[in-house]
Amino acid sequence: MLEVRNVGYQIGRKTLLREISFDAGAGEFIAIIGANGAGKSTFLKTLSNENKPSEGTIKFNNKPLKSYSSKELSKSRAVLAQQNNLSFNFNVSDLVMMGRYPHFQGRPTVQDHEVVEYAIEKTGIGHLVNRIYMTLSGGEQQRVHLAKIMCQLLEHDEVVNDKKAISKPKYLLLDEPTSSLDLYYQHQLLELTASLTKRGFCVVAILHDLNMAIQYADKVLLLKDGAALGFGHPLEVLSPVNILEAFNISMDLVHPAGAECPFLIHCKEPISKPSVSWKQHLSV
């Protein structure tokens, strides 16, 4: 369980986050949504322990985040940053193996190599393993880092039997993971992370595409000016009224016949209230 209670963050006199609270359990995909400057990346950095909250508490598995050692935290929580700058010419296979560093001393074992092979296969980067990282496109680099953090969190027995639930909760924090990917790989990445939630991972991801949040997330945290405007089911939180408040743009929720889920479209006329409630969409 991820527990966030009244978390705030300040730099000098400037308040960037204030009174954010929510719970996220094993097997849940939480999407963080908000306009530019709403505090999304600042909040994710606070969850990852890069920022120390000015107030409030964060707990992973009933234990305060601040009480974890770096090595202990590295085996239960991994972060995919929006930008990953490297100054050395690592090849892809060596970079992915770095995700196993918390798990071995000296030299990687056969089991470590098997975990790396599994992550490479799942992220679809097998054709890149002998390439130099700096020669890859931004989207390819992002997929390499996803493979790396999968290696960081997965145990060998969880790779051997990848249909089985993981033994203890683990947390994957993703900062705009789809920003440099084309449409195909955006969905592939989100489908992969959704499959991890089915095994017991808790995924918290910043997303800009509201329709992808509706399609993949179990819950949405909507931020405005560093505070929570809403938290809950995507169709409840991403209502036209809330979107107008958060983004200053009019959207409407439509659900065409035959579509698996509703989606948002921009409407030229300002909305006054939703034409159809989110609960009606859920019952379709």
From the structure above, extract its key features:
284 residues, alpha/beta, Rossmann fold, 2 domains, six-stranded mixed sheet, 11 helices, 33% helix
Describe the structure.
With 284 residues, this protein is α/β, with parallel strands linked by helices. The chain folds into 2 domains: 1-76 and 168-234, Rossmann fold; 86-159, no CATH class. The protein has helices spanning 40-47, 70-74, 92-97, 110-123, 138-153, 156-160, 183-198, 210-216, 234-237, 240-247, 278-282; strands at residues 2-11, 14-24, 29-34, 55-60, 63-64, 77-80, 170-174, 201-206, 219-224, 227-232, 251-254, 263-266. The strands form 3 sheets. Strands 6-7-8-3-9-10 form a 6-stranded mixed β-sheet, with helices on both faces. A 4-stranded antiparallel β-sheet has the order 2-1-4-5, with helices on one face. Strands 11-12 form a two-stranded antiparallel sheet. Helix 7 (183-198) links the parallel strand 7 (170-174) and strand 8. The longest helix has 16 residues, at 138-153.
